[in-house]
Amino acid sequence: MIRYEDLEEKVLSYNSNADVELLRKAYIFSAREHKGQVRKSGEPYLTHPLEVANILAEMKLDVASVSVGLLHDVVEDTLTDLTTIREFFGDGVAHLVGGVTKISKIEFSSREEQQAENFRKLLLAMVDDIRVILVKLADRLHNIRTLGHLSPEKQRRIARETLDIYAPIALRLGMSRIRGELEDLSYSYLDPEGYKNLLSDIEARKKDSENLIKSIVGVLEKVLDEQGIQARIESRIKRVYSVAQKMKRQKIGLNQVYDFFAIRILVDSVRDCYSVLGIVNNQWNPVPGRIKDFIAMPRNNMYQSLHTTVVGEDGQPFEIQIRTHEMHRVAEEGIAAHWKYKEGKLTEGKDDKRFLWLRHLLEWQREVKDPHQFLSNLKIDLYPDEVYIFTPKGEVFTLPRGATSLDFAYYVHTEVGHKCVGAKVNRRIVPLKYILNNGEIVEILTSSDAKPSRDWLKIVKTSRARSAIRRWLNQRQKEEALELGRKLLDKAFRKHKRTLKKYEEKLSDITGQLGVSSAEEVIAGIGYGKFSAKQVVELVVPELAQAKEAGGSESKLGSMVRRVLRRSDSPIQVKGHDDLLVYRARCCNPIRGEEVVGYITVGRGISVHSVNCSNLENLLVNPDRRVEVRWTDEDGDGARYPVRLQIETEDRTGVLADITTTVSSIKTNILDARARVIDGHYGLVELTVEVGDTKQLDKIVNCIKKIGGVRDVGRAKPSARKSRR
Ligand code: MN
What we know:
- The chain is α+β, with helices and mostly antiparallel strands.
- The chain is built from 30 helices and 23 strands.
- Manganese (II) ion (MN) binds near residues 48, 72, 73 and 139.
């Protein structure tokens, strides 16, 4: 077990100004809080925070991070709370400990790949200080190194989580050394057999390669020395999990993994890198297309190096990687290599250039000076358009920013969406339209009586929810139309002492005449009001058409339209059809002259809306049901429509009288007039007038506008009454 003194010495070795007071205080605090606790292995619990701090010190992180390593479990596992940490260690350390604790509380439940990706994003987006992630990675590394004492089931769970979540985060942050260890250890627990076999194969091939490697290194040492280039030459064997992945991905055997071993040449300057590349490619034959310049074009996790694959004397290709010592440190330690703090500030000056990779990573143009600014940008820029939402069980869902609780319900499951009546966010009840925020725990409330409504289309923001609702509504409408159409058609047959049942098969004979493709569509068409039941009966049994001319019996729908319009000749025509039922929608109450649109309703004919009607957008989600309509040409067919006007006036006596006098003088009937004073400031007059067309309405509005004391005149918005579909 590492001793505190070793840790302190390690920190001082790379940062002689380190605040060891803070470190010592953290150690004493942690030792006191964890006193008496033991790990599964029987060791004192304190070994764990000490080892985690040691891993952080190996990354050469600042004293605050190493101290947080010592303190990272006290809030989670002892009676201490964050307030106490804050009192003892200040806001900075408390904030980091709080961040690590928060991550520990998240439960990882699903194993789907998508879920894992969500989780990685979540972790990166949720923390506002990357050091929180670094401490968490160190914590996980030590835990997985000491997994042996747990039950196999727990081992597998932690290993899976590490492979799905933490190793990819390490990769994204460029920390390949830690990533490699996390992956290999996880793999050894997840597939012990496969790991063991591959490991022994690798050992065998490594042994076979030893002489080759030795001779290559010997040649390199000689030629570089001749050229006067100072270099450190190493060889590396590909890690077990990487090899396994490559073999699986490319469906190849171990012998075909061409970069099984690689030679690394570390030099002092970028210039030397390119010189060495030249020397190497001169010494052996390079494989065309395998020279890669990651110095000029760093990978987006900031990895820089030159790679070349050459063919050795025995015809075996091998990879050579050339980089500076500094690039090597970045390649191994990633973001941690850059994360040197000096009293809370990033070291400036000559280090600035190294932050170029961050800008690459973030496609972020501004100058990076303040680490906090950088971190907050990291948080925002990585995934600006998404929010991460939890279920109470800890599953994570990614939704677009602005999504509502109803959207979330549809993400959980379509049926959950259809039955949704509300939600609980962090245990508080919220309405369907509640806009979700990052990290909220959302529980959907359902009821077996609930069902989607057209208004829901206004609430949802995601196309997934929208199309689920539309599908439901269309399906529902079709069912309704079929049911109604069947009833109406049966009734029409019965009028002639026949039944639909008897003639149902014949419906498919008339589909061509009606322009539909199935008998079902004939029936639905009646329900939708596209054709009348009578029309269909007469097509199926032509001799009945004669009866009509003789008897002139009236259809049920015909009387319905009379009821709606109180007149038989509609002022509105549907283009291409003379026989359709048409009525003015009550929600917008269009008047002659206004631009209008027709909408085929279920069983009620065609409702005509003003193009400005606020209901229209929702109604026309199904464009098939839109029809062109126009006002009949006959002028002055005598139809009069009530129109409600709202007039804003100064608070002056006599205004109402002036208005009514003016309106009467232009030969307009006033059906209702009322006036009130709003907030003691201005008057509001509501006037219902009877008009024939928009021309007349415009005239009325203009005349009222000219009256002294009138500020504004407008058509009243339809009342809250629901529109008829
Ligand atoms: Mn821990």
